[in-house]
Design goal:
By secondary structure, the chain is α+β, with helices and mostly antiparallel strands. It has two domains: 80 residues, no CATH class; 78 residues, no CATH class. Helix content is 32%, strand content 17%. A hairpin with a 7-residue loop joins strand 4 and strand 5. The longest helix is centred in the N-terminal third of the chain and has 18 residues. The radius of gyration is 19 Å and the shape is elongated. The termini are far apart. Bound molecules: zinc ion. Zinc ion binds next to helix 3.
Length: 181
């Protein structure tokens, strides 16, 4: 691989924006799969861990160096979307449609759904760990739909995933069933 360039994060941020709009129209889970891949594989690794400044090209070349923006000398397209990107971190974690709450992504977050009187806290180290705990802080009557990540698509993973959720919920005397779409 000779090329030192690579994808610009401004493209990824704008694709995430488009994906948000498409998801709001059709609710397709493959939109969330895509969104998660972009968020974890590109946007999360786009920032200098010391300064918080973002880089321009994120090369796929092994061992390639990165050039990060500086606060006064650079204002690339990716710096502009780099200011917007942190707002994407929690944007698609939860969604709702009528009385259903969708847990779309696995990120440590809190949700306070005031209109439904419902609040939860998600505790997870995903993708470093393959577990996520949903702690319901304030009850409410609603349907909870939890996304099964695309990388768990083989049938045995899906079955184990759903079975474990059902067992855990039945202990709390909550009705649960598997739904595929
Ligand atoms: Zn750019």
């Amino acid at each position: 691989m000779q090329a030192t360039g690579g994808p610009e994060s401004c493209n990824s941020v704008n694709m995430m924006r488009l994906t948000e709009a498409l998801y709001q129209m059709d609710g397709r889970m493959d939109r969330v799969d895509y969104y998660e891949r972009v968020l974890l594989n590109h946007i999360a690794g786009n920032f200098d861990p010391e300064t918080g400044m973002c880089c321009y090209y994120t090369s796929m070349r092994p061992g390639q160096y990165r050039v990060y923006a500086d606060p006064y000398g650079c204002f690339w397209c990716c710096v502009g979307t780099g200011l917007q990107a942190p707002a994407k971190l929690a944007r698609m974690v939860y969604a709702n449609y009528e009385d259903t709450l969708f847990v779309n992504m696995f990120l440590p977050t809190t949700l306070d759904w005031k209109e439904r009187g419902f609040a939860l806290e998600q505790q997870t180290a995903y993708p470093d760990k393959d577990t996520s705990s949903l702690v319901i802080r304030q009850g409410g009557r609603l349907k909870l739909a939890i996304r099964c990540p695309y990388c768990w698509n083989p049938a045995h993973y899906v079955s184990a995933f759903v079975a474990r959720i059902i067992i855990m919920l039945r202990r709390k005397k909550v009705t649960a069933r598997a739904v595929t779409s």
